[in-house]
Amino acid sequence: MTSKVKIGLIGLGGRGMGLLEIIIMKMKDVEVVAVCDLHEDRRERAADIIEFGGNGRPVTTSKYMEILKMESVDAIVLCTSWSSHIQIVIDAMEKGKYVACEVGGSYSVQECWKLVEAYERTGVPCMMLENCCYGRDELMVLNMVKLGVFGEIVHCSGGYHHDLRSEIAYGKENRHYRLNEYIHRNCENYPTHELGPIAKVLDINKGNRMLSLVSVASKAVGMQAYVTNKRGDSELADTRFQQGDIVTTVIKCARGETITLTLDTTLPRFYARGFTVRGTKGLFMEDNHSLFLEEEHAQYETKWKSQWGNVEQYREKYEHPIWQRYMQEGVREGHDGMDWLVFQQFFDSVRNGTQTPIDVYDMASWMCISSLSEDSIALGGHPVAIPDFTNGKWISKQ
């Protein structure tokens, strides 16, 4: 394989086009040779951008299997709707193509097993593009955990706290799949932004695993109120949305830790991921950008407020090596630099023929939370077992 990775880009909606323009076209060692989308205008716009960038006009198609059959394609970048992710990843692995898949949740545990089985049958790596695993704070906290700064970890929490009402309400006009998801499903539909970094902190699939979950959902009134106030004369006026406004999921791990995930996307709020790590020696809280370390902040009540927003004081001592190098090289665009890092890691794996840092077992374990939470909510918050997709290899896997 040459040093330049030749890719096929499948899915050219907002995320796919954003990644093409902000990240992929700016990577000198990557060339887009084919693009695919169901909509012709998206295909042609992407092809125009690539051609204008000086790499020649790519192959355009509405049938992704045509790209998977191209011998010139080294890897696939997949940015389609959630419901098509796993099948396309499986098809790509069957054709011997490394594949990077945008985030999303599963629709059944069975499709997650099919994903794992396809990898074990073909040996072709796939990687979920969970950019939050490469956030500066998330990696610094991971480094601190590995150094023992927080002591023994007991609990982690996080959430997808993002007001998406406008995106959902105008889903038909924007040809965005979230609208139908919120009309028909009620689950933790977007678990991986918060779960990915937590899974790395807790060694999930590498010495630890998730055992079971309980999910509950609030009533679903946020979208209806938004539609009534903003789009009262639209065909959505009489639509009943199933997706609860707040979904809370609690996960139990084999080593005894607990995880709380929160989905909060249909009520007015600011954006946050709520990343929190609690250990026997201290804590990290994203919401006020604070560290509390027992040995340094012993006067709990009198001095705690003075420590709010103190994370920057600890950068020099605990910055993760990935971000140390990144700061020296120059942080790039894309969600505060996270997008560039996750793609860089994927393309390095393709170029070197090595395993991806987020592997198929991570992908299946994180995605399955959506379908399992749907089951738990439907059963009134009943506990649901989480499969061991490694079939016991988590005990010794490093």
Automatic annotation (TrEMBL):
It holds the Pfam family Glyco_hydro_109_C. Keywords: Glycosidase, Hydrolase, NAD. Residues 139-306 form the Glycosyl hydrolase 109 C-terminal domain. It comes from the Bacteria. Residues 6-128 form the Gfo/Idh/MocA-like oxidoreductase N-terminal domain. Its cofactor is NAD(+). GO terms for molecular function: hydrolase activity, acting on glycosyl bonds; nucleotide binding. Belongs to the Gfo/Idh/MocA family. Glycosyl hydrolase 109 subfamily. This is Glycosyl hydrolase family 109. It comes from Paenibacillus agaridevorans.
